[in-house]
Amino acid sequence: MKTTAKDLRFYSKQILEAVKRPEEMTITYSGRPCVRLVPYREEPRSEEDELFGIWKDHKEDHREALWI
Known about the structure:
68 residues; YefM-like fold; 3 strands; elongated
């Protein structure tokens, strides 16, 4: 569905309700498409963060000369 930036200003509630249905909306400015509104989909989160444990195999070296 297409709508204009002016319509977005005046009918934002109705446009957001249409996007919730879910319906994609293309906003045009000066007759050219500039923004696409799509329904927000929350990504399912995994139990572990992908960066969790990234340093688990790292051996600490406390020799100061290596850091200078």
